[in-house]
Write a structure and sequence with these properties.
The chain is mainly alpha-helical and 229 residues long. The chain is built from eight helices and no strands. It is globular, with a radius of gyration of 25 Å.
């Protein structure tokens, strides 16, 4: 089991690193063509080499997130693993359905891109809160998401790109934290937790059960075997 977790963690880091390197390359080669403070990363599909590489960066990040989800699932945190998987699947969907340029009206594929991105960016911080891991980063990511969405609602598109990049950095940091923590496990299994609480909170029940069993099998009142019986 530990070998599988180690392989999943290594694979996750490889995919996430590839996605980050490609994204940084897209940012660098298009630095003079767009305003990074206003342009979101998704809009790079309409600029230069971003048409080919922006989607690849999203896919790599999505594959990395799905690998992280598998590691979290092996640690026993099923609900959190599903939330991480939602983020991973969402990133893959974003690569398939591109967003339109900011100066054009919303299209059907742009709407899919926008709302799937919203669901994905919400799911990952929620996974952190469910796991009880990286809580501060999870709350920070949710706050950054609120700021990013607000730039569209209040007409502050001049800083949408900056807000999105801060959000992406926080979400990527959460994935790295989940990948690192998944090797040691996050939570106890629910049944094991209930059993542990029952044994430690109600020892008298176990003692009474033991006395009843021993009484039927020929033990003493304290559970001691009657050798002379």
């Amino acid at each position: 089991m530990n070998d599988i977790r180690g392989l999943l963690r290594l694979s996750a880091f490889a995919w996430l690193t590839a996605g980050l390197v490609i994204a940084l390359y897209v940012e660098i080669v298009n630095a003079g063509a767009v305003d990074p403070l206003a342009t979101t990363f998704s809009e790079y599909v309409h600029v230069g080499q971003g048409a080919r590489l922006a989607g690849v960066a999203m896919l790599a990040t999505g594959f990395g997130a799905l690998t992280v989800a598998a590691g979290v699932r092996l640690s026993g945190a099923v609900r959190a693993a599903r939330l991480v998987a939602v983020f991973g699947i969402g990133m893959c969907v974003l690569a398939v359905f591109p967003q339109e340029p900011m100066d054009q009206p919303l299209t059907w594929h742009g709407a899919i891109h926008r709302y799937v991105a919203l669901a994905a960016f919400v799911a990952l911080p929620l996974a952190g809160l469910v796991l009880g891991a990286a809580r501060r980063s999870s709350w920070a990511a949710l706050a950054a998401l609120v700021v990013f969405v607000s730039t569209f609602l209040v007409g502050a598109r001049a800083v949408s790109g900056l807000a999105e990049r801060i959000l992406l950095i926080l979400e990527l940091a959460l994935l790295v934290a989940f990948a690192r923590r998944s090797a040691g496990g996050f939570v106890m299994q629910p049944r094991a937790t209930l059993s542990f609480v029952a044994r430690t909170s109600f020892p008298c029940r176990d003692l009474a059960r033991q006395r009843r069993t021993c009484g039927r099998s020929g033990c003493g009142d304290r559970g001691e075997p009657r050798f002379g019986a």
